[in-house]
Fold:
Amino acid sequence: MNRRGAVAVGVLIAWAAGLAMFLRRERAEAPARRLAEAAMRVAPGGTYYRVERNGRHVGYASSTVDTAQSGFSIVDYLVADVAAGGSNHRVTAQSDVRLTRRLELAEFALGFEADSAPIDVTGRVLGDSLVAFSISHGAGSQPDSHRVRIEGPILLPTIVPLVLALGEELAVGQQFSLATFDPTVPGTRPMGVRVAAESLFTVSDSAMLDASTGRWVSAHSDTVRAFQLASDGPTSFRGWVDRQGRLVAVEQALGFSLHRTAYEEAFENWRLDATSGATESAGNDLLTETAISAGALDAVRNRQRLTVRLSGLDTSRYELGGGRQHWSGDTLTITREDSSAMAADWTRPATGAFRRRYRSALAAEPLLERDAPEIRALAVRLTSDTRDPAVAARRLLQWVHDSLEKRVTVTVPSARQVLAARAGDCNEHAQLYVALARAAGIPSRVVAGVAWVNGRFYYHAWPEVLLNDWVAVDPTFGQFPASASHIRLVRGGLASQAELVRLMGRMRLDVIGSP
Structure:
C-alpha cells in the first residue's frame, strides 16, 4: 500500500473555484455608490475555459452571470482529472453566488468532490458583521453549522475580478488591500492584490469541427485587452481579467492554468481526451513531481536526529523553529522527543484553568467535529479508563493507524467523513486523530511539512499533542513520537497547508547530518 502522504490537491482546485472567500478591508477602495453604478454594466452571459496542467488539457471550467431584479447570480464550475499516487482522480468544484444590486455578497453555495467524497458549504451574509454557514458531506449528512463575525461586505474570489474591473479604472501598479475568509478556519487573513501587468490576448470565441482529426478548432477569435491581478497570499494567484471583469487566463501553482476559449474547445475536446484516457498520465503524477530528493539520507525511517539545509523558500513565512526543531541560518536540526517530553505534566480530565489556556487546541472547528456524537463516543471508548494523557494519546494513534486504509486521495477531509470512510492519506489520518484527541480532552493540532519515505521527502501532514510539551506524532506511519525525518513547515489545518503549495517544486533540501 502506498503510504506517501501529500497535502490535498483539493486545496488548490477548491480555491480556484471559490472555496476560499475574500472581503474588502478598506471600503474606500470601491465605495458602495461606485459599485452600484458598476452593477448597471454587468451583462449576463457565459465564458468557458480550458483547464491545463503542464500544458496538458485536463479539464473544463465555466462561469455564468445572470441578472435579476434583486441582484445577480454567478455560477462557476470546474472539473479536472489529476494524476496522484499512480492513479487518476476526478475533481469537481462549483460555486453559486448571489449578489445584491450593489455587488455585495448575499448568499453562496459551494461544492467540492473528489474520490467520491463530497463537501458542500452553504451560507448567507447577515448584515455587515456576520456570516452564517454550514458544511455538509453529501445528501443525508448532518450539517456542521457556524457563525463568524466579519467587518464589512465580503466577496468570493470569482467575484473579485468583476468588482475590481467594474469598480476601478485598472492600471498597472495599483494595489488593493484584501482579507481572506475561509470556512475551514474560519476567519480572515490579510492579503494584497496588485495590478501587475497589461497585455493583449487572442481568444477563441467560436469553434468548428475538424473532420480530419475529430477535434474542435477555433473558427473565429477576438483580441482582448486584459490586466494581470497578482496575489502572493497563502494561495498565490495570477489571473488576467478584461475590462468587463471576466477572467481571460489564470496561472496557478503546480502547473495548473485556465485559458478562456470557445465552449467546444474547452469541453468537447476535454471530453474526448477523458474518454480516451489522455487527460493525465503517470508521467504527470503530482506526488512524483513534488517529491524532494533526500540527499545522503539512508533507509532508516525511525531516526532520532536529522540536520538539513533548506533553500528555495522564504523562511520568514514558515514555522521552522520551536519544539523539536532548531533553526539557525539556513540549517535546521530536528531532534525526536525523548522520554521526558512524552511524560505528561498534567492528568485527565484537565482543569478549568488548563482548558482555558489551551482553548483553541481543544475546540471544535469546521471539518474538525470533536463534538460529533460518533467522535465523542469513540474517544470515550478508547480512553475512559486512563487519566494519563500519554497513554490515551498513544491508544488513539494506534486505533487510527490500524483502522484507516492507507490510500492517496485529493479530498478536503472532515473528521466525521474520515471516520465513516475509514480510508485516506495523511490529511485524513491527521484530521481524525486531532478530532479524537480533542474529544478526549487532549490539546492537539495539525502541522504539515515534508516527511521522508523510501529515499525522498514528500509533502505530509501529522498531529502534535500536548504532553509535557508539544509532541509530534504520526498516525499515518504509526509513530509515537514521529521520527526526526518529519520536517514541520506550518501549523494549522488545510487553510495553513495551502501555504505549502507555493513550495512544491521549488524547495531544496540537503541532508548534512543524520546520526
In short: The chain is about 20% helix and 40% strand. Residues 1-31 have pLDDT under 50 and may be disordered.
